[in-house]
Design brief:
single chain, about 425 residues, alpha+beta, four-stranded mixed sheet, 11 helices, about 40% helix, disordered N terminus
Length: about 425
């Protein structure tokens, strides 16, 4: 990374001090020994593998061939650290987490492999034993084995989760039972890991005469299944190493043992919906923390107007506001994770609130980070702009902020809140 930029000079008399506590972090006393070890493992991986890669090879993010974007070594190192096998049952060689603290543990170590965890949770709960053995075995044997969860369609996405359970809101991807097999036709897009995944869980309408809560099925579809085609990688402004993909299914047939659920698939997928909100909130928080850490180092290392930047009151006030946002986001995240693990009735409200608050507030933190870097904040090689781009994508990941707000109000006032949409 460059050390000099026009209009600024190094504060040679001072060495930047790292923050003693990243705002929003779990305190040591809030974690048990297993969680502390997992957090330490994840941080070692990030510090030793991910951060050096992003800083030294920032051009790779802009490679237009998605197959060349993320080096295989990144996933191989995650495999060595044991981060790829989280959620896979121990009897297959995976790393299990105490169910009573699973949401909090994953929030502590949220990482880019969240899609693998989502699909692993579904498979271990719904798939036949022989299917679990096959897919978990392949996942553990191949470091590049990624999984994808396919809900979103061009005709509708998070608006379907308000909910208004009418046939008009059903998925347009259809699944029909023919001669002992299920035949899928439709299109899925904006699928995280969709371009690279080796295994997909695809949701499709099984009964168009009813709403999607009682007329949706979920199906395991391996890559290479006839009729399944990955047609493109969506070139997003942020989150570019996840290779967001688009899939087409044309008479794609899967056998009976590849069915996870028929009719109530969305209800059964609820096993990870709330923990998934916690994970998304944790990913948001992590971006904000990294943006804050880079900015804290920058404002202690640069001189502008005869003073180190952090000594200017305007800079100090902006930095304090960033830290406050992150501390508040971390507190809400911990509350949501605890409510999910303890199965408290307020878990729904806290999960929606945590997802909404972290997404919007971290976006503001990242915007401040870019602005406090001055002109350098817009430079690709400096790196801080990446956090703003990623935060922009996360505003609508796992539901848009507006839809999340509607769901939050419905959770608070289930009998009085509006339907917001309908037939």
């Amino acid at each position: 990374m460059p050390t000099e930029h026009p209009g600024s000079e190094r504060a040679g008399r001072l060495a930047p001090l790292p923050p003693s506590h990243l705002p929003g972090d779990w305190l040591v006393e809030e974690l048990d020994e297993e969680q502390r070890l997992m957090q330490a493992t994840c941080r070692r991986y990030v510090d030793r593998v991910l951060r050096p890669f992003v800083q030294s090879a920032w051009q790779r993010e802009w490679v237009m061939d998605p197959a060349d974007r993320l080096p295989r070594e990144i996933l191989e190192e995650a495999d060595r650290a044991g981060l790829r096998s989280l959620g896979i049952p121990a009897r297959f060689g995976g790393v299990e987490v105490d169910p009573s603290k699973e949401a909090a543990t994953f929030a502590v170590i949220a990482n880019k492999l969240v899609q693998n965890w989502k699909v692993a949770v579904l498979l271990r709960a719904l798939a036949p034993e022989e299917q679990q053995e096959e897919w978990f075995g392949q996942a553990l044997a191949e470091p590049g084995f990624l999984m994808a969860h396919c809900l979103t369609e061009p005709q509708g996405a998070s608006d379907r989760w308000l909910p208004y359970d009418v046939p008009e809101a059903a998925m347009t991807t259809r699944a029909e039972h023919r001669s002992g097999r299920w035949v899928l036709n439709g299109r899925k897009h904006f699928i995280s890991n969709g371009y690279d995944a080796s295994l997909f869980v695809v949701y499709a309408c099984t009964d168009p005469s009813v709403g999607m809560l009682s007329g949706t099925g979920s199906f395991v579809v391996p890559r290479g299944t006839p009729g399944l085609e990955v047609v493109r990688c969506n070139e997003t402004v942020g989150g570019r190493f996840m290779n967001n993909g688009e899939l087409v299914l044309e008479d794609c047939a899967v056998p009976e043992d590849h069915v996870l659920a028929v009719g109530d698939a969305l209800g059964k997928a609820g096993i990870y919906f709330r923990p998934g909100k916690v994970l998304q909130a944790a990913k948001n928080l992590g971006i904000g923390q990294e943006a804050f850490a880079q900015t804290a180092e920058w404002v202690q290392s640069r001189v502008q107007g005869g003073r180190v930047l952090v000594e200017h009151q305007a800079v100090a006030l902006r930095l304090a506001a960033m830290a406050t946002r992150l501390e508040a986001a971390g507190a809400l995240l911990r509350a949501a994770a605890g409510a999910v693990d303890r199965r408290q009735p307020e878990a729904e409200v806290r999960c929606e609130a945590a997802k909404l608050f972290t997404a919007t507030e971290v976006f503001e933190v990242c915007r401040d980070a870019v602005e406090l870097h001055g002109g350098a904040g817009a430079m690709l090689e400096v790196g801080v702009q990446k956090h703003l781009r990623d935060a922009a994508v996360y505003l609508h990941m796992d539901a848009t902020s507006d839809i999340t707000s509607f769901r939050l109000v419905k959770a608070l006032f289930p009998e009085r809140a509006g339907t917001y949409a309908g037939p």
